[in-house]
């Protein structure tokens, strides 16, 4: 697997850590390196794969308590999909777009007092450590992102639904994010 694809896969693993599995998150933090396949410890790699499969199995299970959890798998994908489509699915790959989306959603969660600053910083550091982007691609128009969010099929009654973390390992779905909040966060994420 090329290194860039490995990093993209790790974006989804970080996602599981943030929304579902605090222990996995801590293990990723403890890893010596995350940005190179060859540098990944075999035991950690095994652990990552096992836990990711477990998380997916839990989320797609028919258990009533877990049924609603399927929605949180979309964490980082709301803005991520917009970034992907606006860059023609070429400039950034899926995992990179999800990384950008997680940084944005994390900051939105902080701004709305859903999430503490320290947890958001830990997520940011992990994404950087994995060699994934934390800023918007240069030249990407923020208003175009906002328009793309509105045309996303997950929009219900004009409000974009966001998956937001409330602590490491726990996330919630909300439609209470204003366009102004999204705009402000995206402005902070513009590359200088
Ligand atoms: Zn994905």
**Oligomeric organization of the protein chains:** single chain
Return the string of H and E elements.
HHHHHHHHEEH
Any idea what the CATH architecture is? Up-down Bundle
Distance between the termini: 32 Å
What's the number of domains?
1
Name the shape in a single word: globular
- CATH topology group: Dehydroquinate synthase-like, alpha domain
Low-confidence stretches: none
Query: If helices are DSSP runs of H or I spanning 4 or more residues, what is the number of helices?
Result: 9
Strand-helix topology:
Elements lengths: L2 H17 L2 H9 L11 H19 L3 H4 L9 H10 L7 H18 L5 H13 L12 H10 L10 E6 L2 E5 L4 H10 L4
Antiparallel strand pairs: 1-2
Helix pairs in contact: 1-2, 1-6, 5-6, 5-8, 6-7, 6-9
Quick synopsis:
By secondary structure, the protein is mainly alpha-helical. It contains nine helices and two strands, in the order H-H-H-H-H-H-H-H-E-E-H.
């Amino acid at each position: 697997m090329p290194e860039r694809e490995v990093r993209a896969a790790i974006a989804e693993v970080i996602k599981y850590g943030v929304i579902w599995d605090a222990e996995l998150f801590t293990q990723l933090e403890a890893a010596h390196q995350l940005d190179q396949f060859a540098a990944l410890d075999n035991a950690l790699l095994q652990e990552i794969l096992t836990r990711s499969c477990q998380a997916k199995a839990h989320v797609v299970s028919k258990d009533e308590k877990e049924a609603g959890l399927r929605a949180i798998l979309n964490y980082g994908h709301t803005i991520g999909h917009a970034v992907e489509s606006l860059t023609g699915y070429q400039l950034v790959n899926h995992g990179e777009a999800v990384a950008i989306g997680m940084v944005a959603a994390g900051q939105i969660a902080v701004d709305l007092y859903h999430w503490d600053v320290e947890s958001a910083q830990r997520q940011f550091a992990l994404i950087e450590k994995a060699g994934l982007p934390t800023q918007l691609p240069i030249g990407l128009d923020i208003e175009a992102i906002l328009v793309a969010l509105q045309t996303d099929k997950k929009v219900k009654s004009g409000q974009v639904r966001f998956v937001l973390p409330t602590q490491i390992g726990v996330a919630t779905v909300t439609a209470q994010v204003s366009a102004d909040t999204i705009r402000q966060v995206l402005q902070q994420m513009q590359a200088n």
